[in-house]
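#lab-general

N.A. 3:47 PM
ok so I finally got the sequence cleaned up, no stray characters, all 122 residues accounted for. can someone with queue access submit it? mine expired

B.Y. 3:52 PM
send it over

N.A. 3:53 PM
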Amino acid sequence: MSEQQKNLASALQTLIGKPLTSAEFVHDYFQLRFPDEYLLAYNHAVLKHANHKTSLTDPTTFFQELSTCVGRLVVQTQALEGEHVTIAFDNSSSLQISLRDEDYRSPEAIQFRDASGLLWVA
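B.Y. 4:20 PM
back already:
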């Protein structure tokens, strides 16, 4: 794991115990808002529930399913270089955003702004 990914992984851990306050689709990306942080996601994403998963390739269903996570607490985060960023919620759902080279549609896969205002890009 590179130093940048370790730092991103540490930064994402600050979300643990915080609720997702909103999820919005904006043009060709989506944003997740937390009390003092936000995450913009530009790459392919999958939302996994206990017994099924929904892909961003079906945006209507994806956002209906993602809306069930609004108000839910983050229980775990993970950043695996070249693989994905994962945010797990207390309703047994987890959001996986791809960091695979073939899934990049722009120079970055995600942007994460932490509570102190630092911006993390992967």
